[in-house]
Amino acid sequence: MTGGADIPLIALAAGGTGGHMFPAEALAQELKRRGKRVLLVTDARGARYTDNFPADEQFQISAATPSIGGPVAKGMAAVSIAHGLFTALREFKKRKPAAAVGFGGYPSLPAMKAAAILGLPYGVHEQNSVLGRANRMLVKGALFTAHAFPVLEKCPSGVNKIEVGNPVRDAVAALGSSTFPAFGDGAPINLLIFGGSQGASIFSETPVKAIAGLPAALRTRLNVVHQARDAEMEAVKSGYAQAGVSAEVAPFFSDLPQRMKDAHLVISRSGASTVTELSTIGRGSILAPLAIAMDDHQTSNARVLAHDISGASAAILLPEDQFNEQSLRTTLETLLADPGRLQSMADAAKGRVKAGAAAALADLVEDIVAQKAAA
Question: Do 261 and 281 fall within a single domain?
């Protein structure tokens, strides 16, 4: 533990994926700047993202998804969540946080339920355009429901909704003032492709085939950065080599925000963090929402960028059943041959997601701590 016991300790509960963990990390960074201590509550999957998480203290809980699988799987998930609840109750009693914030995903459910049982003030943050199922179980008792995008679907009535945006990590926020990389006739074109961790094969195969079919005048100008799974890396590399395309292929890029900044165009899924980072940095994109995403929330996220505002669209939305070699090749050929349009898409992306989310969320946390102290 760092800091004194008189410094408020704020519990942040997130886990499962980077989409939940990264906004929690951004809030933690802001709370630390304000002199608070941070307690991270996560699960085994979330622990993979904690290398740079500025937590003074942390503990892991068990959690599972009760909405997937048959009766046995649902029963096991309920047992796991109950065990997570008991762990959170024990740890909260011992560590005495002043307030808690849940970032969705089932690891946040037992932590926020424990906060409610102990009378700790808590709020939730929803990263997507559709309120997640875990958060739906929590918002009635939350003092605030902060959300990322202008529309929040499936939110019950009577909830204290506040649009704050999606907190972004300092490394992403620092790129918010970046300019669009210059290019013109004959200059290299930087193309970034990622998002294949779920439904990976389509993201490994389709872009390579589409790019191989581009006219040579475009194809030979491309510098491709492509994130692909280990099992598919060699096939992706071989496909680009055969097409004469310069490509860097790897299973993971730790500097993905910097890669986004350097790109003229991005091809990706439309998770909440991706949409937010495209808006923060300001880059045009081709978005293929994950078809199996719960409540089709990635399609709703993509519309934040794909929807025209005053005639300007920041993204092309290609549903997964339309994300094929022919449609992607046609879309790429149209966009890559038009530098002016890529510039306008980048400009249109800027600010589509509300900026300053980490500070706004930290303000809400400080408010509920003050309310509790005054009660």
Answer: yes
- How far CA 204 is from CA of 142, 230, 238, 317, 323, in Å, comes to 41, 11, 12, 18, 12
Regarding whether 145 and 200 lie in a shared domain, the answer is: no
Angle at 231 between CA 225 and CA 235, to 5 degrees: 60
Q: Cα(162)–Cα(147) distance, rounded to whole angstroms?
A: 6
**Which positions ≥6 away from 181 have C-beta within 8 Å?**
190, 262, 263, 264
d(CA 83, CA 368): 28
pLDDT at 375 over 60: yes
Among 72, 22, 25, 27, smallest CA distance to 361 is for 27
Domain count, the chain: 2
Query: What residue numbers bound the domain in which 236 lies?
Result: 189-349
Q: Are residues 151 and 203 in the same domain?
A: no
AA letter at 294: M
- Taking only the tens place, the pLDDT of each residue in 215-258 is 999 999 999 999 998 889 999 999 999 999 999 999 989 899 99
Cα 43 to Cα 132, 144, 156: the distances in Å are 18, 24, 27
Residue 163 is inside which H or E element, if any? Answer: strand 161-163
Give, as one character, the DSSP assignment of residue 44. T
Tokens of 283: 């880059």
Consecutive H or E run containing 207: helix 200-212
Q: What is the pTM of this model?
A: 0.89
For 156, which DSSP code? Answer: P
Sign of torsion, CA 343 149 21 319?
negative
Contact call for residues 136 and 156 (beta carbons, < 8 A):
yes
For residue 239, what is the enclosing H or E element?
helix 233-243
CA distances from 184 to 33, 143, 264, 314, 341 (A): 42, 51, 11, 20, 12
Count of Cβ atoms closer than 10 Å to residue 163 Cβ: 15
CA dihedral 7, 8, 9, 13 (to 10 degrees): -150
Same domain, 193 and 324: yes
- 112 and 195 in a single domain? The answer is no
4-30 as b/e, with b when 16 or more CB fall inside 10 Å?
A: eeeebbbbbbbbbbbbbbbbbbbbbbb
Q: Is the CB of residue 222 less than 8 Å from the CB of residue 245?
A: yes
Residues 296 and 366 occupy one common structural domain: no
